[in-house]
What we know:
Layout: H1 7-18, H2 24-36, H3 38-48, H4 58-99, E1 102-103, E2 110-117, E3 121-128, E4 133-142, E5 149-158, E6 166-172, E7 179-182, E8 185-189, E9 192-193, H5 196-202, H6 212-222, E10 230-236, E11 242-252, H7 257-274, E12 278-287, E13 290-297, H8 298-304, H9 309-313, H10 316-325, E14 332-335, E15 341-346, H11 363-372, E16 383-388, H12 391-398, E17 414-421, E18 427-437, E19 444-452, E20 461-466, E21 475-482, E22 488-495, E23 503-511, E24 514-522, H13 527-538
Parallel strand pairs: 5-7, 11-12
Antiparallel strand pairs: 1-5, 2-3, 3-6, 4-5, 7-8, 8-9, 10-11, 12-13, 14-15, 15-20, 16-17, 17-18, 18-19, 19-24, 21-22, 22-23, 23-24
Helix pairs in contact: 1-2, 1-3, 1-4, 2-3
Amino acid sequence: MKNELTCEVVQDLLPSYVDHLTSDVTNTAIVSHVKNCEDCRRILAAMQAPESLPEKDPADASTIDFLKKNRQKNRNRILASVLTVALLLSGFWGWKVYISPRSMTDTSMMNYSVTVTDSKKIQIKGSLTDHSLGVSGINYTVDADNPGIVTINVRANRLSASKNNSFSDETTEKHKIEKVYVNDWIAWENGTAIQPKAAQIYNTIHPYVGSMSDNGKTLTALGINDVLPIATHELQTTDEPYGWTMNLDGSFKKSQQTELERTMKNYAMVILVCTENLGSVTFSYSLDGQKTDFTYTKEQGEEDFRGTCAYFRNSATEFQALLAKAGILNTVYSSLSEGGYRLTEAITKVADAEITGSVRDEKDTFIQQYKTYQPINSWSPGSVYKSFSSEDEALAYIGYDKLTPIKLPQTPEHVEVTALGDRSGNICYISFLESYSCENADLSVSASADIYTEHSTISDYVDIDYPSNMDDASIYTTEDYTSASGETWKIITTTNASDDSYDSIDAYQVKDTISYRIGVSYPGDQKNKARATLLELLK
C-alpha cells in the first residue's frame, strides 16, 4: 500500500513516536516512511541517540533541536493534561463518593426495622453492614397510582467524619399506609413487619426455572449451601411438570435421613414458591453409600403447608409465615385483619429418649385412659395433670436437659405440668407452667414452656391466633425486644375493651426446641407497672 505520509507530518509525529504515544496504525505508517526516507531516518536516529552528539550539519542540528524542544513541549503538555484529568477525576470521585449521596443498590447491606403507627406514621431504624459506608440521606416516595404504598429511599456514600453508619428517621403520610418498601425490598404490609431476610428471599421470586441465574439468586438468599452441600444442578424443562434436581456432595448416614429429608422438604417448598413454573424439587444424595433421591412436588407442598404456591407468592406476610413454618425464620407474628396476631413457628420435635424424667412412667396411665374412655365422660383420654411444690420438682419430673429453669423472682404459688400421650402410651406434648401474684401490685405473673416430642401428630409447625375468638374487641400491639443478655423476645400487649377485664402483656421466645412464654396480667391502671415487671423478668 502506498505511504501517504509526508516528511512534515512524520517529523511532527516523531516525538510522540519516540515516547511510544502513537497508535499501532500510526507506528506502521511511520516505520514504512522512515524506511524509504533518509532525512527522516537520520532525524529519528538522532532523537533516539544520547544527548551528547557529534557535530552535525547546522540545518540538521536546527531541525533536531526543534524536534527535541517540541518533544519536551509535548511531554509537558501531556503531563499537564494527565494531571488536569487526574485532578478532575479525583475531584469528581471525591464528590461522587464522599459528597454525592447514592441510593443503596444492595439492600442486603442494611440491617433495618420498619414500624407503622396510627396507620400513617412510618419509622425506620437500622445500620449498614459495610462499615466504610455512611447514610447521607433518607427520603420517601409515594406511589402515584396508590398513595398507600410508600418507598423509603436510603442514600449512602463513603463514611466521613460527618456521617454515621447507623440511621433513624420517621415521617407522617397523608393517606393510610398499606405497604412500605425499603429501596426495592418490602418491609411492612398491612400491619405486619417483614423481616429483611424474608424480604430478600421474597424479592427473588421469578417465573422460569430455566433461568439458572434467577435460580441462583433464590438459593443465595436462602443460604441453602450453609445447610445442604449442593455440588451440581440438573434442570428438566422438556416436559411439564418441570423439575429441578440438586446433587449433594458427601455422604449421609441412615440415622440422619429423617431430619435431613425434613430439611429438604422445607427448603423445597420455598423454592417451589419462588419459581413459578416449577413442579418438583429433587435432592439426590448418598445414604450409607447408596444413591438416594428425595423428590418433593408442588402438590405435596401445598398439602403440607396448607396453602397454594400462588397464595404464598401473592402476600409477603404469608410468604414470611411460610419461612417460619419451614424453620428458615424464627417465630413470626402476623397482624390479623380482624384484630390480634398470629404466631407461626417451626417445631423441632424432641426425641423420645431425651425425655428422661418420671413422666415416662405415665405410659400405662395413657393406655388405660384410652381403654376406659366413654363418649359421655367429662374428661379427655391421653392427658395427665400434676401439681408440684417447687420448680425443681417439676423439672425433675420432666427430665429434659434443654428445659431452662425460669427462675421467677418470687416463689411460685402454682407449679403445674400437663402431659399428653397417644394410645400406645407415648408422650406427645409436655407443658410446664408456674405463676404467682405480686405482693405490692395487683399483678399476676405466669411463665410457661411447651415441648413437642417425635410422637406428636401435629405438623412441623404451629399457627396460633391471639385471641382465638375473633369477636373479641380487644386491641393488640406487638414489638420486638432484646434483653441485656442479648436474647430476643416478641412482646404482645392485649388491651381489653371492657374496663372490668384484666389486660395482659406477654413475651414469647423459641429456644432449643422449646416455646417459652412469660406474661403479666394487670388492671388497666397498672400498665406501666406491668411492663416494667415483665422487662425485669426478661433480664
